[in-house]
Amino acid sequence: MTQRLSISATVFFVLTLCLGLYFAFAAVQGPSGILRRIQIEAETAELAKERDRLKDQVEQMENLTHRLSDEYLDLDLLDERAREVLGLLRPDEIILR
């Protein structure tokens, strides 16, 4: 003799299965799911690299600013910047292009 599930038991089973599938899908694809977490971790690593690169640039700028300040003037750096930025030359120099 075969037992058949009642309609209410079948509906309950199907509903439970659908809810389980929905929550499993949400755990993987949802806004706080596994795939979003992997994406956020990759973005975090990329932003950390950019932050480190920007910190290095700030340190270089601070070094140049200090070397051109009134307290410590690097004449070679001043001469280099004047030539590059302003296009200045000494009277005894010859330009080769």
Short description:
The chain has 97 residues and is an all-alpha fold. The protein is 71% helix and 0% strand. The model has no long low-confidence stretch (mean pLDDT 89).
Walk me through the structure.
With 97 residues, this protein is mostly helical. The chain has three helices and no strands. The protein is rod-shaped and about 110 Å long. This is Septum formation initiator family protein.
Summarize the amount of helix as a percent range. Answer: over 70%
H/E element sequence? HHH
Largest sheet: none
Overall, the morphology is rod-shaped
Number of strand segments = 0
- Beta-strand level of the residues, as a percent range? under 5%
Whole-number mean pLDDT: 89
Number of helices: 3
Q: Please compute the radius of gyration using only Cα atoms.
A: 34 Å
Contiguous low-pLDDT stretches (5 residues minimum) are none
Distance between the termini: 102 Å
The chain-level structural class is mainly alpha
List the defining traits of the structure above.
97 residues, mainly alpha, 0% strand, single chain, rod-shaped, coiled coil
List the helices and strands and how they pair.
Blueprint: H1 7-29, H2 34-67, H3 75-86
